[in-house]
Design goal:
236 residues, mainly alpha, 10 helices, globular
């Protein structure tokens, strides 16, 4: 049974830890420490998971875990990245061929030297946008495939990260039989969906605060999410 109340309360069990986590979340690269702390809130790998946030005591360990969690996500995103690169390459070649016949004299040389008049590319496209339709129609399935692969990667990554955390072995993040068996369950899907909704709502509410609003939403939603993921992960 997933204890949602416990997960929702967890970021607020210690104001000092919460403030430090938010501050660290603001600073690029340093925020890997905050990410490592966030995944520790899953309680995975501990004999008795706590209802409270862990201590800020081993920042180097948190830094490594946070960094590796991003590497794991990136590796899971590689299929999507490949699809998008193919789409970009195809689009560039196809659109160039489509618009080559209507480009004004000297347009290409101006573009290569960076002396293209303001709005030149946009004006050319707006006047001959119909030429781009065949390319866009052909690209649509490829873009859709890329988006689906992104969604799958984001869905699988938390389980993969927690399997690495549990076993303290990076390769365990790619034990696909285990990751799939944990991820493709109704309980995990609901938890993942709720965690995502909480994250979106917090970002929307706090978006009016530059920088700090994102950091607050990132840290709080992360602690809640991994508290929930950890509960599902630890179930037999």
């Amino acid at each position: 049974m997933v204890n949602y109340e416990e997960a929702l309360k967890k970021p607020f069990t210690d104001l000092g830890k919460l403030v430090l986590g938010i501050i660290l979340s603001i600073i690029p690269i340093v925020n890997w420490i905050a990410q490592g702390f966030i995944i520790e809130n899953s309680g995975v790998g501990k004999n008795k998971p706590s209802k409270k946030m862990p201590e800020w005591k081993d920042l180097g360990d948190y830094f490594v875990k946070g960094f590796l969690s991003y590497v794991i996500l990136f590796i899971y995103l590689i299929p999507a990245i490949i699809v998008f690169l193919i789409a970009i390459g195809y689009a560039a070649g196809s659109l160039f061929s489509a618009f080559a016949g209507v480009m004004p004299e000297g347009f290409m040389s101006s573009m290569m030297t960076g002396n293209l008049p303001t709005g030149g590319m946009g004006q050319l496209f707006s006047q001959h946008w119909m030429l781009a339709l065949p390319t866009l129609i052909t690209l649509a399935p490829l873009i859709l495939l890329g988006l689906i692969l992104v969604l799958i990667a984001v869905y699988l990554a938390p389980i993969a990260i927690l399997n690495y955390l549990k076993n303290k072995k990076f390769g365990k993040a790619f034990d696909f039989s285990f990751v799939f068996s944990k991820a493709f369950t109704g309980k995990y899907f609901i938890v993942w969906l709720i965690a995502g909704i909480i994250g979106v709502i917090l970002r929307m509410i706090l978006s009016f605060i530059p920088w700090l609003g994102f950091a607050i939403a990132y840290f709080i939603s992360g602690v809640i999410a991994y508290s929930l993921y950890g509960q599902v992960f630890r179930e037999k």
